[in-house]
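Fold it.
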Amino acid sequence: MTITTANGPGDGVVEAGRVEAGRVAAGPAWAAEAEAAPVWAAEGCAAPAWAAEVRRLAAERDAVILAHNYQRPEIQDVADHVGDSLALSRLAAAATQRVIVFAGVYFMAETAKILSPGKTVLIPDQRAGCSLSDSITAAQLREWKAKHPTAAVVAYVNTSAEVKAEADVCCTSSNAAEVVNSIPAGQEVLFCPDQFLGAHVRRVTGRANLHVWAGECHVHAAISGPELAAQVAAAPDAELFIHPECGCATSALYLAGAGVVPADRVKVLSTGGMLTAAPAARSKTVLVATETGMLHQLRKAAPGVEFRPVNPGASCRFMKMITPDSLLRCLQEGRDEVHVDPAIAARAAESVRKMISISAGGAR
C-alpha cells in the first residue's frame, strides 16, 4: 500500500505500513455531534449493560483500559484513564495490571508495549494506523541522519517503534519545546515527522538549527486558516484552542498579531493543555482546532462553555475504528495482541523514557 504525502525535504510517494492517508474536508455543522452518537445504540445494545460487561471483563483479565482523548465518547467513558500521548505513556509505564488495553491507534499501543515489555498489550483493532506515523520510515530517518551526523534526533511519539529506535529522544505536543531546549543550543536538531509541530517548536525555541521533516497528520493539516478565520468572524469574542499539529496554527498567530483576536485569547496547546485551560476560559465560546473527539472531555471539564470545532469534519477514522463492539471482543478473546521486536523495543525505550524523564512533573 502506498500513500502520497510530504516525505522529508520534498513531496513524494512513501511506502505505508498500515493506513492510507486522505485529507478531511469540512463536514456539516452536525457532523461532530453525529460522530459522538453511540454505536451500540444503533446496534440495539443497552449502554449500561455494555459498559458493565466491559468493566467485568477488564477486572477478570486484570486489565487496565487506556483511551486517547480522540476516542469515541462511549469508549472514553468506560476507560480507566483518558489522556494525551504523554499522560498515557506515563500510565503505561506505571501500570500494575497484567494486561494493558489501548484504545487508540497502533503506535500508541506499540509505545505501551515498549514501556511495559513484560505485559500483554491489546489493541481492539490492529488496523487503526496513523497517517502521521507512516509519513517517515526508519530507513528514511537513517538516510536523513547520515546527512547530519552530529545532529540530535527528536521524534514525535506519533511514530513507529522502528523510528523511535533511531531517535535520541521522543516528544509529545505538550513537551516538544521542552525536549528541544534540553539539547545544547549549538547542536543541530532533526525533528520528525510533523512539519506543523516542528514549525511551532522552532517559533517557541527560536532555534535556527532545527530541521523539520515534512510530514503531517491528515486530520490536523486539513483544519485550515480560512476555516479558522470564518469561525472567528462568526464568534469574535471566542477564545481559540489550537493544537500545534494544525495547518491553521500560523493563521491563528497571524490573527493575534494583526489584532483580529486579542493575543491572550489565542492558545496553542496539546490536548492535555486544552483540558487544563478549559475551566479557566473567560469567553462563553471556545473555538477548538483539533480532532473532534476532544470536545467530549472539554465539555465535561467546563460544562458552562460552548466548545465549537473549527472544522466539524475533523474526525480521525483510524481513532474511530475502536468501537464498543471491538473493545468488547478484544476483552472477550484477548485480541489483537501487540508485539514489538525486543531489540527494537530496547532501543526505542531509551528515547521514550528520556522523554518522560525530561517532562517529569510537567503538563499532561
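The longest helix spans residues 342-358.
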